Amino acid sequence: MGQSKEEFLEQFGRDYGYPHAPRGIDEIRATEFKRLEGTVYLDHAGATLYSEAQMADVAKDLKSNVYGNPHSQSDSSMATSDLATSARHQVLKYFTASPRDYKCIFTSGATAALKLVGECFPWSRDSCYMYTMENHNSVLGIREYALSKGATAVAVDIEEVADPSKSYGSDSLFKISRHSNQRRGEDVYQNGSLASISGNNLNLFAFPSECNFSGHKFNLSLVKLIKEGKCMGFPSQKQGQWMVLIDAAKGCATEPPNLAVCPADFVVCSFYKIFGYPTGLGALIVKNEAASSLKKTYFSGGTVAASIADIDFVQKRKSIEQNFEDGTVSFLSISSLRHGFKIIDMLTTSAISRHTACLATYVRKKMLGLKHNNGKNVCRIYGQQASKVADRMMGPTITFNLKREDDTWFGYREVEKVAALSGIHLRTGCFCNPGACAKYLGLSHSDLVSNFEAGHVCWDDNDVINGKPTGAVRISFGYMSTYEDAEEFLKFLWASFVSKAMALNNGYMLNMNNLNLLDDWSQQVVSDIRLKSITIYPVKSCQGFSVQSWPLTTGGLKYDREWLLQGSGGEILTQKKVPELSSIRTMIDLELGKLFIESPKCKDKLQIYLLENSTHLSAEVDVYGQRYQVHSYNDKVNTWFSEAIGRPCTFMRCSNTNYRSCTITGRRDRLCRDTRSKLSFVNEGQLLLISEESISDLNSRLSSSNGKDKQQVVVDAMRFRPNIVISGSAPYNEDNWKRLHIGEADFTSMGGCNRCQMINLYQNSGQVIKSKEPLATLASYRRQKGKILFGVLLNYEDCMDGEDDTVVEKWLQVGQEVYTSTE
């Protein structure tokens, strides 16, 4: 045991690891979560994990018993009904809700439960829907029902103005601050009050037991105080009766609301958040009196006692559960709940709460202590300022952003990508909680609108706009999380995002100011740099072929990435989606004018004539935001490719009629066209250049980082799918080159190539293998502003001398000298 863990246990030993349970955390991880070996899973707020014993019990149950549709009187139906009744009682027990006062309505999840409340709540023009800013979109969505019925909707912030442990029941325990009021059709406020609200209406107040963005835990004594109107700034009882809804989807996994103490009218949950399985099943725990006020319009199978098809006659069932559960419930999922609750009951929710809380407290403290070499903080953690008693009022969630030593932000997508390379699972974005996101990140309404107008939407890569983060990084702990998970995450932060003191000569980091190459063409050869190899990739994401020489066109290397495969849904197929593409071999014979294609899954070799118009359909496709004019091939060709990759697809060729324009000013008074670069299916630059010396340096780093016990990883240039490989330069000198002259051809550097997971794919004995390398090692020293750069992208300058409009075909040839310029 390391000293660090000893210190951790000295501080948290009473709470960590379930010391009083039949099985401790180390045994649970070793026996129930073997699949987590080598993985750090820190997204329990998104979905926690199921245990092996739990799933074995589910499988045994389903194999041993016959469960039928519960809407009948057969033995199998009655067995299902009995199980459902038992499951309802188990859910109520979990929330300490008396079956005399509450009912459990099964839904497809917490969102469906919230939607049910919104649909059935008796909204009127006198009603008000009030909700905290820190709420999930699924809670915000209820306002659409309220506003559509003429009700008022208003978001609020809640501030604790006293310590709950000293002031329980105080009228001034909370202060409520309203945001702008929403109502369709007319203004609702007169002199700052809810003018149109009368005393006979029903109103709804919604808040989460724990904010899924920040982890801030709301004090559940809010329930009684809201219902009694005893919060500062809250409408009085004269303005109607208030019902309270708690979104417990996040909080119930570690601290379910105790409804015997805090008698909310509605509580929603999803069971996969508690014990991982089943998904697609949640519950609305509803107070009997509240259920009687809900007005349900639709009826369905299972909800009626009797109905007549051709006249307006229906009698709904009296049971609350049967009235609100439309159709057949997910009874096999319901039958599995008892197996999930088994491990929770063994550990107890109080022990789970303490276990996860101590991990979060430990990591939060360590993160706040991380500093760059210049003394500036690395981590900005959100949510702690929300409570005067931060540790006790924070759940096992840490949401943060990271800053560089120059005070600029690391984008959250960069953090997520680098974490994935380290086997760390976390979540980024706003987590469907726009109010908390805006509140903690300091985003104004104008910021949010301008971000949207700039193209930012949920789940995209626009993580920093105008110098401000658009979201954050979130880690969260679950009942099976360990100290080792916490330590691996902290080591990852330190290794990947904390600047350290460096020697002046620190290898070949991304420092564009260190190199001082000559910029005169005649003096440009700093060493004997030569063109080592040329590779053409006719079909995007398929194998290429090497040549000794090859012609250039306006699109770069002739026929390079001129074809691609499109899936049946219109998506572009790449190796990241379809690894089988890597086994398809290609070759072009310029003399024969043919493209030859082979696959180990196809008996015959496919032959495509380069000049013959064998296409039968012209269309436009979108490839990563760029529109292309394409021709497709006949069914015979498409069938061949579908067999080769094991899925339906269409083979397409880029049309020769479309061009992309970019102006490049030539050297020595040479005039370049508004370079009509033909649209081939390249992602960015027309050619990719890789240096052998850079590959050698990468391999030396891979060797030193693997250690004695790990398998040696060696990569060659072909792993990066380059068009040209050069030798004779210093490692990473290519970063500084602005222009290149090879043979008679001139090229412009478009900058470094941003690498992705595709370089981690390789073939072994006909199988496509995915590893973490070399991208993980590249990320440790070749990362710049969210990009992991290796190799440089080039565009061919198709230039003309004088007024002659004749284009002379130029060729690249292996062995040619490479001249470079930094200007």
TrEMBL record:
One annotated GO biological process: monocarboxylic acid metabolic process
- Reaction(s) the record says it catalyses: Mo-molybdopterin + L-cysteine + AH2 = thio-Mo-molybdopterin + L-alanine + A + H2O
Per its Swiss-Prot or TrEMBL entry, what cofactor is needed? pyridoxal 5'-phosphate
| Active site (UniProt) | C432
What residue stretches are annotated with the MOSC domain? Answer: 646-821
Residues where N6-(pyridoxal phosphate)lysine is found: K273
Any idea what job this protein has? Sulfurates the molybdenum cofactor. Sulfation of molybdenum is essential for xanthine dehydrogenase (XDH) and aldehyde oxidase (ADO) enzymes in which molybdenum cofactor is liganded by 1 oxygen and 1 sulfur atom in active form.
What this protein is called in its record is Molybdenum cofactor sulfurase
The organism of origin for this protein: Arundo donax
